[in-house]
Amino acid sequence: MKLSPLSVVDMHTGGEPVRIITVGYPDIPPGPILRKRAWVRDNADHLRRLLMFEPRGHFDMYGALLVEPDLPDADLAVLFMHNEGYSTMCGHAVIALGRYAVDKGLVAATEPKTEVGIECPCGLVRARVEVSEGRAGVVSFESVPAFLHTRDAAVSLPGFGRIVFDIAYGGAFYAMADAAQFGLAFGRDPVRDFQDAAAALTEAVKAAFPLDHPDDTDLAFLYGSILTDGGSGADGKPTRNICVFADAQIDRSPTGSGVTARMAAMHARDEVKPGEDHLFESVTGSRFTAMIETLTQAGRRPAVTVRVAGKAHYTGTAEFTLEDDDELGRGFLLR
Fold first, then answer.
1. The pTM is what?
2. What is the spatial distance between Cα 13 and Cα 4, in angstroms, rounded to a whole number?
3. DSSP-based three-state secondary structure for 251
4. Of 18, 214, 246, 281, which is most buried with the most CB atoms under 10 A?
């Protein structure tokens, strides 16, 4: 099959890559975004492999495919992709896309702030882009309703023993645990040890704890695990965390949907009040700020919306092609 050239704009948010795909995908049938997500997964997954995997990408590459919005309040719509498949929400990509939308004229820039409605598989996410002299700066977004799903659950992990964790939703579901339970400390232990511990937690929780979401069963899956330093990020003192998602992929940023989930869980524990700023730091040292924006519901569950803020930067543009006899060029991964 002849492959059309694929054009991309590469950005990063807090060190986490965002490969925005602008040209080269086949026409995607209209309809709700979860239906588009399923269509791309079933009919165009070879393009995800080509763009995310080596030799054009790497094990921890992340992508964003712009598609036609279905919701009336959306300025653009996006499907997220990674080493395993297609996620339902990605805060670091939303931050990048907010800036991209203003810079590329997808929305009219207004100072001092421009609102951008971004339709994600989890629902409509509203980004707010700071604009000065026509240039986009810090971007924040208000999440979909986020909530604590399971509190103080426990699993027994070989090599680690009993691990206590929460499960919370911030556009995607995460298991969240204090890294000290694994004998790990930020700044002391290698990232690989955090990766192995978080991946083990994810697999155990997937096997033992079924999930549900009031909006759609396609949202009810565990995306990954977040290990934390046990802090709250209050009073200007950052709390560190690492998010390991999909197929043991490591987020270089603090993780926008993960920060949202952490804030929802802390609010459910009465550790966070609306309007308070909290600071989150990743393993690269990059930081997001977050605050509870509104109190709401997700079906029968008490929920919150969370505003998360960060900054994205451009790293380049590219046009990718594939020669007919290049089997390795179709995508591979080395771990």
1. 0.97
2. 28
3. coil
4. 18
CA distance 271 to 268: 8
The tens digit of pLDDT for each residue in 313-329 reads 999 999 999 999 999 99
What angle is formed at CA 49 by the lines to CA 45 and CA 50, rounded to 5 degrees?
115
User: Does residue 10 fall inside a structural domain?
Assistant: yes
Structure tokens at 145: 């309703």
Tally the domains of the chain.
Answer: 2
120 is catalytic: no
Say if residue 226 is in the same domain as residue 277. Answer: yes
Say if residue 158 is in the same domain as residue 304: yes
| CA gap 271, 233 in Å, rounded | 10
Annotated active-site residue in 90, 120, 122, 243: 90
pLDDT (0 to 100) of residue 1: 55
Q: What pLDDT score does 335 carry?
A: 79
In what helix (H) or strand (E) does residue 335 lie, and over which residues does it extend? none
**What parts of the chain have a pLDDT lower than 70?**
1
Measured distance CA(268)–CA(301) in Å, rounded: 11
Whether 163 and 99 map to the same domain: the answer is no
* DSSP code for 214: S
Task: Please check whether residue 155 is in contact with residue 200, taking contact to mean a CB–CB distance below 8 angstroms.
Answer: no
> Are 112 and 102 within 8 A, CB to CB?
no
Query: Do both 69 and 210 map to the same domain?
Result: no
Structure tokens, 224: 């990954």
Would you say the C-alpha torsion 195, 197, 198, 204 has a positive or negative sign? Answer: positive
Q: Provide the CB-side half-sphere exposure for 43 (13 A, CA).
A: 11
The amino acid sitting at 8 is V
Q: Which two tokens stand for residue 68?
A: 């036609």
